[in-house]
Amino acid sequence: MLSTIFLLKSKQSKDLDHLDIYSYPDDLNKKCPANFFKRLIEGHDEGCIPENDITYKKSKISDGSLTYHLDTPIPQFIDGLNTFTICINSKMMIGLIFEQDDNPYDYKEIFEDLSNELLNNEKVCSFEDEIDIENFLLTLFIDIRRYGDEILEKFPQVSFQQANLFTKAFLFGIDEVGKTSFVRRIKTGEFNENYFSPTRKFNIEYIMKNEMSFAFWDMPGQTSFRKKWLMGIQDSNIIVYMIDIANQLRFEEAKQELWKILENPEFSEIPLLILGNKIDLINLNNSHNEDQLQRTEREIFEFFDLDSIIHREWQFMFTSVKTNYNLEKAIQAVFNLIEL
Question: What is the pTM of this model?
């Protein structure tokens, strides 16, 4: 399974100590030994970074735009890391890091094809802008990770499950609503209030419930990641949107992001589960608990315009990851919505 993607970009000729290093989701500057990148570059067939001239090897196509030359991917095992790297224009390197037991050659074709498509056909990255680079790496990471999880079928239980029992649930929402805590609670039964800072990692967690295998795609909610939701949502059996109902200051933001997805015709028939999380933070009087829940639900429906949702099966429910409130019912709702 792909764990990390990175890009090395040379700052100065013949100087391995001057590299721009971009990585997702792990920070390789902190994770890797000091000489890791030096050994990685020197072990690569082309010795491609750096070269004598600090100028990229550029070639032009008929419309005048730059085309990128990608060398053949090279596998290396360095400092316990299972790497697969491609040199670009003898000046940069894209690298993948897999789990130790993975065979990088299983990913050779998809790695080459996607890199070439993104760089030379879609031209998504000029390598001059950090945001372009981050988006390029995230796009490549998601597509290669999807290939590994859905085509190579890394999840061991999948091999003996009927195909229609394997379910992809796409979990999204703005940052700090409790998405990653929800998945962890469902999978392990554990909750630690101080365990998570706002997640900046795309993650897939596999969960077995009621003889069904779930792949929960947990997507970061920060603004810079939201444009990638459209990629992750593809081929989903159900989408799960989470709202922090205790943070009314961000209701408008959460509403806008929800409706961007709901108004996309490409996903119009995918079932939807909306989770109003952190109900434990709402000050409910025990003697009138049910009345207050109903009143809060009406307010949520009205603000988020939920009664306008059409052309799909959907459901709303309150949850509390912290207290485990309604989490089993949420999983059952996923079953029910998929079966409708």
Answer: 0.66
